[in-house]
Amino acid sequence: MKKVLMFFIICINYANANTYYVKATGGNGSGLTDADAWSFSKLSSTSLNPGDFVFFNRGDTFYGQISSTNANSNGVTFGAYGTGVNPLISGFTQVNSWTQFNGNIYYTTLNVASLNAVTLDGSIIGMGRYPKTGYLTYISHTNNSSITGSVSIPFNPTGGQVVIRKYRWIIDRHKIASVNGNTINYTTDNNYGNNNIYSPVDNNGFFIQGCLGTLTQNGDWYYDNSSGRLYMYFSDLPGNHVVKASTQTQNLYVNYFTTLTFNNIDFEGGNLYGAYIVGTSNITFNNCNFRQQGGDAININNSQNIIFNFINISDALNNGIYEATGGNSTLVTNSATTNIGIIAGAGKSGDGAQQAIAITGDGTTISNCVIKNTGYNGINFAGNNVLIEKNLIDTFCTLKDDGGGIYTYNGTASAPTTNRIVRNNIILNAIGALAGAGAYYWENFGKAAGIYLDDYSNGTQVYNNGIANGGWLGIFLHNGYNNQILNNQVFNFGVAQIELGEDFLGAIRSNLITGNNFISKTTSESTLEAAMTVNESPRLFGSLNNNEYGRPFDDSLTFDVYQNYTGGTGINNVTLATWQLNYKLDLNSRKSPIIYPSYYVGSVNGLNKDLNSNFDSNISGVSLTGSGSLSYVPNSKLSGGALQVANSGTTYVIIPVGALDPTKQYDLKFTALSSQTANLKVYLRQGSSPYTLLSTVSTEKITTSVAQYECLFSFPTVQANSSLIFESDSQNLNYWLDNIQFYDANVTAIKPDDFMFFYYNASTAPESISLSDNYIDPQNVSYSGAVVLQPFTSIILMKQYCVQPPKPLIQSTTP
Asked: Average pLDDT in the 470-496 region?
């Protein structure tokens, strides 16, 4: 029988307050001593007065829920007494009776309206599904009523659920009405979240759950609410396992009560909520733990002054803390969340699902929290007078993406917000979730940002944060205005360290971005991307200055300007100097203080394959096709004799290099001088028809100054007859080549992980980090021996020297 604790405050005079004791072996006595302690059912039928204390015996488990329904009940404190672990309010019922249904599938009868939370041998588990991992692909849809898959389902899933990845941030659950071939027809009954807002997007993913056909391995389960049966697949006998199912909607229900305190109490196994708090104020939780919740661990609506201090939340299938509307002055401090919303198909449909902490309301503070392993956003906030500080957020957007470690969304340009501060946070490992998002083939990466200021976010100060490691963006300012992004350390994001993305004319304005370190770890990462789907110049976006834009392994074309509109030129990779010249931004910003080669040549083997490499007396063995001519210059500005190329159009200088071995790498060095700055393409191709390209094309910028160049090549197939090609399409150009050396080489790639480091301190005390070498930071400040980081600070360090001293080279991309 369900036991519901209902407390009724019948008097406003705290002089009538008492202290009551409750334990698992209690009875119907006075409750005023441990010896005469109440049972949980006795407490359920007892009226409480303002100022009363109710203490639960430590180490005891109480099945049921604490519930309040009387609007005059205020001022009660619930806590713990005795020794041991916190008392536990549990919504779980252990299943001890199973009936064999078919083969390895057994059932038990629960008779609950719905079932989300089931544990097997102590771990919360999702429903059985098909396929077991990943997604199937749907290739077409009809409105929000059916999808057609690329393959058929090997069983009849009618009556079960289809789980559809509609957008990158939406995974919806629908009841299957019927199946016709590869077409699944479904309903939009809104029985868990809102699945009626978004329609499918073709070529995204889906899977099936909630039917017998999905039960094929140990622990697979589904609940048939029409028969009240829980079905589960066991690889052996059910008696060898402990199975628990949630049979309570929530553990705690507070409705319009005020000034309630909960100290040192644990909650588990609520089917929809651990705590459901609505229309109240001045509710405080201290040192409470919420675990294995079937929906939100804590759900708040239209409530003020809700305080969480030293709260731990783990294994909630939907959200950790969720406050959708009407909130004010919510405080979350010194708390932790782990494994929130990480099972696909277990969370609610629609927006606002599977986040660690999501709070809408003014006066929110979230500080000194540790947030690890979240299916979607780590922290999502909205409102005015918000403070998000000194939090460690690690591993997020593992299930859904187009989200962030810290995320905010405004939605309309006509809703200004003020005094929103995001500072001194450490944000790590923006994972992203590409699986099931095949419709977004042009964004073939996990789309998670460290800090994400989404549509029309404004009035937000983002400063002194340490943000590292992800496949997309460190900071994303999307159609935002009047924001400040100051003094952040941003490192190792696959697309760019910061993006300014504008989809509407005038959407990005009056932003201040200064004092930041935007440091790319690999050659494929940009430092900054400006992406516009409307024809506007980035110079209108605000003030950008005094930033460090570093990419030590190729510090040239580190900016992306993406003009994705009619008449635009697509993606343009430009240098810092070009960015400054074209847009009059970042005039005092700088590039990396150190440059690393991407490899070094330990030794070369065999003979130089260009036998006339120095052109001491002639240019024999070299030929030219195209619009131009070759000549020999005996006393050049290089080192003695040189090869001169006179271009009137596109020319191809051809130097035979013979056979190539696919197991080897080849190192090309040459010296060049040009009559004007121009691009020179260098590559290898077959020496005879059909002249197939054998390598990627390395584009080197030759100038009016003598410089040495170096390229590294490797090859996919054996080639008996190959040629080295120098191609130029510049008209009225003269350039000179000399000292051409082409050897098979012993090459060692230089790993960025060995030379670039992101250190952080997410503790409340200073931390000394030992350094094994000499380092510099992006401002070229030197460090050796150790570096001391203050609480919630970070630093990007680079070794001051490489394995071999860096060469003054322009390097190619290895094919």
From this structure: 98
Query: What does the chain come to in residues?
Result: 815
- Looking at residue 611, its pLDDT comes to 57
The helix/strand/coil state of 276 is strand
- The pLDDT value recorded for residue 739 is 87
pTM: 0.87
The predicted-structure confidence for 578-587, as pLDDT tens digits, reads as follows 999 999 999 9
Cβ partners under 8 Å of residue 705, min gap 6 = 673
Q: What is the pLDDT of residue 608?
A: 62
412's tokens: 């309309």
Cα 578 to Cα 557: distance, rounded to the nearest angstrom: 9
**Per-residue confidence band for 759, with pLDDT thresholds at 50, 70 and 90:** very high
Residues 739, 639: contact at Cβ < 8 Å?
yes
Q: Which helix (H) or strand (E) holds 453?
A: strand 448-453
Torsion of CA 413, 419, 424, 430, to 10 degrees: -20
Distance from C-alpha of 196 to C-alpha of 166, rounded to nearest angstrom = 11
Contacts 24+ apart (CB under 8 A), 776-780: 776/593, 776/594, 776/800, 777/517, 778/517, 778/519, 778/548, 778/550, 778/592, 778/593, 779/517, 779/548, 779/593, 780/593
* Among 376, 398, 391, 387, CA closest to 427: 391
The mean pLDDT of 517-538, rounded to a whole number, is 96
Task: Report the pLDDT value the prediction gives residue 73, as an integer from 0 to 100.
Answer: 61
pLDDT, mean of residues 141-163 = 97
What's the rounded mean pLDDT across residues 117-127?
98
Among 40-49, 136-145, 515-524, whose mean pLDDT is lowest?
40-49
The number of beta carbons lying within 10 Å of the beta carbon of residue 142 is 12
Of all residues in the chain, what percent carry a pLDDT higher than 70?
94
Which run of H or E residues covers position 579?
A: helix 576-583
Long-range (24+ apart) CB contacts under 8 A made by 413-419 are 413/456, 413/481, 413/504, 413/507, 415/456, 416/458, 416/459, 416/482, 417/383, 417/384, 417/457, 417/458, 417/459, 417/460, 418/384, 418/385, 418/459, 419/384, 419/385, 419/386, 419/459
Is the pLDDT at 740 greater than 70? The verdict is yes
Q: Is 423 left (phi over 0), alpha (psi -120 to 50) or beta?
A: beta
Q: Which of 248, 242, 314, 230 is nearest to 63 (CA)?
A: 248
* Cis peptide bond upstream of 808, omega within 30: no
Are 221 and 125 in contact by the 8 Å Cβ rule? The answer is yes
Q: Which residues contact 349 (CB under 8 A, 6 or more apart)?
A: 170, 171, 172, 173, 174, 190, 192, 193, 194, 195
Q: Which long-range contacts (CB under 8 A, 24 or more apart) does 414-417 make?
A: 415/456, 416/458, 416/459, 416/482, 417/383, 417/384, 417/457, 417/458, 417/459, 417/460
CB 368, CB 135: distance < 8 Å: no
* H or E element at residue 576: helix 576-583
Amino acid in the structure at residue 18: N
d(CA 132, CA 39): 44
pLDDT digits (tens, 9 = 90+) for 450-468: 999 999 999 999 999 999 9
**The Cα angle at residue 449 between residues 443 and 452, in degrees rounded to 5:** 115
Per the prediction, the chain carries an average pLDDT of 91
